[in-house]
């Protein structure tokens, strides 16, 4: 989960990727390009059945925040169904 502060507000941006990729590599690539200025606030894995966040990233040494992460993931618009 990335975070960017915008004045008094913060925007959380979830990034979901397959297990074949490594958290640290994905984070580095994104922070060098499309997510410049965003900080990493949590990392782990999600259950494909209910999108529940869990665990931690060993390569980033960051824990997931199951309640917040799961809520943000489920409420984010991924563009499904749009033409």
Secondary structure: elements and pairs:
Elements: E1 2-6, E2 9-13, H1 23-31, E3 39-40, E4 45-46, E5 53-54, E6 56-57, E7 62-63, H2 66-75
Antiparallel strand pairs: 1-2, 1-3, 4-5, 6-7
Keywords:
83 residues; 23% helix; single chain; globular; alpha+beta
Q: Can you tell me about this structure?
A:
With 83 residues, the protein is of the alpha+beta class. It has one domain. Helix content is 23%, strand content 24%. It is built from two helices and seven strands. The chain has a three-stranded antiparallel β-sheet with strand order 2-1-3, with no helix packed on it. β4 and β5 form a beta hairpin.
Short description:
It is built from 2 helices and 7 strands, in the order ββαβββββα. The chain is an alpha+beta fold and 83 residues long.
Binned strand content: 15-25%
Major sheet: order of its strands? 2-1-3
Pattern of helices and strands: EEHEEEEEH
Let me know the largest β-sheet.
3 strands, antiparallel
Number of domains: 1
Number of strands: 7
Could you give the distance between the termini?
A: 27 Å
Average pLDDT for all residues: 93
Shape: globular
| Unreliable sequence segments | none
Q: Roughly how many Å is the radius of gyration? A: 13 Å
Based on secondary structure, the structural category is: alpha+beta
